[in-house]
Amino acid sequence: MELHERSIAQLSAGLRSGEVSSTELTKHMLQRIRMHDAALNSFITVTEELALTQAKAADARIADGTAGALTGIPIAHKDIFCTRDVRTSCGSRMLKDFVSPYDATVVENLQRAGVVMLGKTNMDEFAMGSSNETSHFGPVRNPWDRETVPGGSSGGSAAAVAARLCIAATGTDTGGSIRQPAALTGITGLKPTYGRCSRWGMIAFASSLDQAGPMTRSAEDAALMLTGMAGFDERDSTSAQRPVDDYVAALGQDIRGVRIGIVREFMGEGLDAGVGASIQVAIDELKRLGAEIVEVSLPNAGLSVPAYYVVAPAECSSNLARFDGVRYGHRCAAPKDLEDLYKRSRSEGFGPEVKRRIMIGTYALSAGYYDAYYLKAQKIRQLIADDFRKAFAECDVIVGPTAPSTAFRIGEKADDPVSMYLSDIYTIAVNLAGLPGMSIPVQPSAGMPVGLQLIGGLFDEARLLNVAHQLQLATDWHRQAPAGF
Amino acid sequence: MQWETVIGLEIHTQLATQSKIFSGSSTAFGAEPNTQASLIDLAMPGVLPVLNKEVVRMAVRFGKAIDAEVAQRSVFARKNYFYPDLPKGYQISQYELPVVGKGMVEITLEDGSSKRVGVTRAHLEEDAGKSLHEDFHGMTGIDLNRAGTPLLEIVSEPDMRSAKEAVAYAKKIHQIVTFIGICDGNMQEGSFRVDANVSIRPKGQAELGTRAELKNINSFRFLEKAINFEITRQIDVIEDGGKVVQETRLYDANKDETRSMRSKEEANDYRYFPDPDLLPLEIDEAFINEVVATMPELPDARRARFESQYGLSAFDADQLTGSRAQADYFEAAAQVGGDAKLTANWVMGDLAAALNRDATDFAHSPVTAVALGQLVARIKDDTISGKIAKDVFAAMWAGEGGADEVIEAKGLKQITDTGAIEALVDAVLAANPEQVENYRNADADKQPKMLGFFVGQIMKQSQGKANPQQVNALLREKLG
Predict the structure, then answer these.
(1) Residue whose C-alpha is closest to residue B318's, from B293, B348, B288
(2) Which spans in B365-467 are helix H?
C-alpha cells in the first residue's frame, strides 16, 4: 500500500519499525501536494521548510523512543487556527498577510504529540459558508468531481484528506463545517462536544458554537487525532474541565444492543432520494451488526436553521469588530479620518457573505429587536437541547443523513444564500445543543460520496467513534478514493 | 419658581489588582506605552478572556461593605462600539445581571445630620486604552496599557439634592473603597472617576427632569463646581423658556463650565448581549464568607475605635479616618509617639498643612509615620518643646534626617537643668529692674500677662530651648 493510503496506526507502526522515516513520508506528501493541489486549491499555504524541520525532529523522537501515536504524521491545519510565524488568513482578504504571533492550543497540543504540519488549508471566509466558495483564495474543488464543491467551511481540509494530500487535518464546525464537507468528500469528520477542544487561537466565528475537530479517513484515525487535540485549557473559560476519554481503547466494543435512534424529521421532505437510500443501507448494516433501531423525534429541529442564523451572525458581528484596520490586518490606503478608516478597511477586507452575516447579526442585536430575535433564538436553542435530551432517553446514538444532498455544483447556490444555508439543516441542531456529531462515508449515490451523521450525548465521543469504527470494520465505504489522486 | 436638584453619581473605581481583569498583564500606572499589552489586550485573532478571581473578591468585598446583595449568578456582557482604543470593538461589562445589587451608604451633611444614599448596583467591567492626540502631528497614538484594567462601576440612586450631598457621597464611596483596599483612590491618575447625572425639577414635583451627564471631573472640588454650574445652567435654560436636552457634558475646570459632548440622538446602540466567551459568574456562600472573614476594618468602625481606643474626640476621629492612608499613618505614628492626642494634633495640623502645601499625600509624605512618631516622642519626653518641634519638623520635611538627628545637629535639646535656667532668669530680672518694679506693683489679674514679657526675654536668650514650664515656675517664685 502506498504511504498516503495508509492509516495513522499503520504509518505509526512503519515509522517505529524504521520502515519509513517521517522525513521520507513528509517529502512524499509534499510531492503529492505539488502534483495535485493546483487542481483542488485545498491549501492556502504550504509550509514545506517547517514541515521538513518538524519531520526531522519527529525522526529524532522516534529514534530515542519518546514518540507517540501521532509523532511524524503529516497533517494540515485549517487556516482558522493561529500558527506562530506562519500566515493565518482565515480565508479572508482581511488577514491575507497576517502572520500569527502565537499558536492555537489545538496546534500546540498536536505539535507536542509530534505531528508534522504540511500547511494551512483553504476555507470559507471566517468559516462562513457551506461550499468553500466564499474564500478570498478562491473555491476549493471536490476531488470526486472538480466541478462540484467540497462543502464548507472546512472544505480545504476535507478535499486534502479525501485526495490523500495529507494523512489527516483539523477543521472547525460551527453549524456543520466539519461534518458537511466530510460528507461531500467521503471522509470521516468529528465535531466534538462544545468545550472538548480549546478555542484558544481558533479565530472566532460564533463563540458559543465553534468547536475544533479532526478530519480523517477513518474513525480510528479520528480517535487518534482527537486524543491529540482535546483537553481542558485554562486559557479558554468555556473549555471542559474533565479528563479526556481513551477514545482508542473504546474502539473495540461490540455494538450489539446499542440503541440507534432514527430521527423521523430528518428522513422526510427535503432529503435527496439517493442520499436517503444510502443512509438506509447504512442503517440496515448497523442493524445487521446487532444494533437496535428505534425511531425518535426532534420536534423543534425545524427551527434550528432560523435560530442558528440569528445566534451565529449576532456573535460574529461582535467577534469580527476587532478587524478594524487599526492594529493588524487589512487597512485601506490613505484614510481621510477614523470613520473612513473603519468603513473602507472593512468594506475592502471582508467578502459579501461575511458582510451579510455581520449586518444580520447587528440587526438582530439592535435595541428593539434583541428580544424578538436574539432572546427568542436562545429559547429555541434550549428547546432543541431538551428535544435531544428526551431522544437520548430512548437511544444511545442518533443517526441520519449529514447533508440533504451530495456535492452540488460550484456556483449552483452561490447566489441563493437560503438554499445554501439549508445544506446544514441536519447538522446545525447539534451545534445549538453543544453535542458531539460525526460524519462517516457510506454507500455513494450516483458516484458521489454520502455522509452518515452520528450524534451522541454530551461527551459521548468514545461511543460515537466506536459505532463508526464497527461500521467501518464491516464495510469498506471509507476506503474508496476519488479517481486520479 | 423654587427648583429642586436631583443628582445621581456613577463612580468608576479602578480595582487595585496586580493584573488585568481578563489577562495576565500588569496594571501598573505610568509604564511606556503598549508595554503592558498582551495578545489578549491587543485583541489578536483567536484570543479569549479569562476572569481574574481577585477582581471578583474585590467586588464582593465592596458589596458586603455597603450591605448590598451579592449576586449568586451574574453575567458578563459585550458592549459593542468602535473606537481605536477599544481593541476588540466591544467592552466586556455587566449589563442585566451585575455582581453587586442594591446597597446603601450613610453620609453626614454639613449640619451634622445624616442621610442615606442608595446604591443601585455595582458591576465589573474592563477599562479601554487611551488615545493620545498630542505629539503625533495630526495622527492619533494608541496606548493599550490601560486596556483591560478592572473597573467596578458603582451606580447610585438619584438620591442627592445638592452638590454638597453629592460630594459627601462621593467622598464616602472613596473612603470605603480605599479602606477596604480595592482601589488606590487616586483621582488625578483616574483610579476614581466620578460622573454626575444632574437634573432639576420644580419643588414638589414627583417626576424627574431631563438629566445631563457630567464627565471629566477629577477632584471633589471640581465635582461640586461642575454640579453647581450645571444646576445654574439648567435653571437658566428652563427659565428662558428652553428645554434641557439629555446629553453628555464635559466639565472644563479651567473655564469652570460644562460643555455639550454628545446628545442622546448621537448615542450608540451598544447591542449588549451575554459574552459567549465567559461563563456566568457563579459566587457561592463559602466564597462570600471567606471575603467577609477577611474584610478590612470599615471607616465607620475605625472611627468608633479611634474614639474608644485612643480617647480622641468625635471630630478628631472623623478627620483622621478621612482616608485610609491618613488613618494608617496616624495609627503607625501614634504607636511610636506614645501619645495619641498629641500625634493626632500633629497629623491633622503641621503634617496635613505641609502635605497640602507641597500637593502630596499621606502615602507619599517625606516624613514617614514612624519619623513623626519619633518627633512626638521627643516632645512627650521633654527633649524639645512643642515650639522647637515645629522647627525640627521643618528640617525633617526638608530631608535633614530624623527627629533625633536634627535635634542633635542643631543643638535644639531643651534646657531642663534648673541651675542653668535659674541663671537665665536672674540675668533677665537684673537687666530689667523697671519691669520688675512694675510687675510687683500691678494688680494680680494683670500680672500673668506681664509675666509673658520675662518669659519671652528668657526664651530669646536661650534660643527657645529653656523648658517653658520651669521658666514660668521660677519667674513666679522670684517675682513673688
Answers:
(1) B348
(2) 369-380, 386-397, 403-410, 418-431, 433-441, 447-461
May I ask the CATH architecture of the domain B418-479? Answer: Orthogonal Bundle (1.10)
CA A169 from chain center: how many Å? 9
Distance from A27 to chain B by nearest Cα, in Å? 31
* Cell numbers for A196: 472538548
A239 and A127 co-located in one domain: yes
pLDDT score for B264: 66
**Which grid coordinates belong to B448?**
500673668
| Cβ–Cβ < 8 Å for B58, B15 | yes
For chain A, say whether B139 makes contact (Cβ under 8 Å): no
Residue A409 lies in a domain: no
A96 burial level (CB within 10 Å; 0-12, 13-18, 19+): middle
In total, chain A counts a number of residues equal to 485
Domain match, A211 and A80 both: yes
Q: Which of A377, A410, A439 is the last residue of a domain?
A: A377
Q: Could you tell me if A9 and A142 lie in one domain? A: yes
CB contact under 8 A, B277 and A95: no
Interchain contact, A237 vs B51, CB within 8 Å: yes
Q: Which residue of B has its CA nearest to A102?
A: B39
CB distance B46–A204 less than 8 Å? yes
Write the residue in A81, A101, A237 that is nearest to B278 by C-beta: A237
User: Which ipTM value was assigned to this complex?
Assistant: 0.96
| Cell numbers linked to B261 | 459632548
> What integer is the mean pLDDT of A211-218?
98
Mark whether A306 and A231 lie in a shared domain: no
Q: Do B276 and A315 touch (CB under 8 A)?
A: yes
Task: Compute φ and ψ for B180, nearest 5 degrees.
Answer: -90, 5
Q: Please confirm, yes or no, whether A100 is among the known catalytic residues.
A: no
pLDDT tens digits, residue range B291-320?
999 999 999 999 999 999 999 999 999 999
What is the extent of the structural domain holding A238? Answer: 3-254
CATH number at residue A170: 3.90.1300.10
Provide the grid cell at B476: 513666679
Same domain, A56 and A193: yes
Domain-located, residue A119: yes
Cα separation of B477 and B473, whole Å? 6
Contact B39 A370 (CB under 8 A): no
Q: Is A22 a catalytic residue?
A: no
Reported residue count of chain B is: 480
The three cell numbers of residue A100 are 500569527
Both A193 and A324 in one domain: the answer is no
| Catalytic residue of the set A7, A153, A198, A278 | A153
Q: What are A270-324's pLDDT values in tens digits?
A: 899 999 999 999 999 999 999 999 999 999 999 999 999 999 999 999 999 999 9
* Residue A307 sits at the chain B interface (C-beta within 8 Å): no
Domain boundaries, chain B: 3-287, 297-410, 418-479
Q: Is residue A445 included in any domain, yes or no?
A: no
C-alpha span between A154 and A162 (Å, rounded): 12
Name chain B contacts of A102, Cβ cutoff 8 Å. Answer: 39, 44
A446 lies in a domain? Answer: no
Nine cell digits for residue A60: 529524532
Using the 3D structure, point to which of A324, A345, A377 is the last residue of a domain.
A377
Residues 6+ apart with CB under 8 A from A321: B80, B82, B88, B89, B90
Residue B132 sits at the chain A interface (C-beta within 8 Å): no
Find the residue in B nearest to A326 (Cα): B84
If one counts the domains in chain A, the total is: 2
Least CB-CB distance to B269: which of A208, A235, A367? A367
- Do residues A157 and A235 share a domain? yes
A208 interfaces chain B, CB cutoff of 8 Å: yes
Is A153 among the residues known to form the active site?
Answer: yes
Of residues A22, A78, A100, A345, which has the active-site annotation? A78
Query: Model confidence over B68-90: pLDDT tens digits?
Result: 999 999 999 999 999 999 999 99
CB pairs under 8 A between A and B: 99
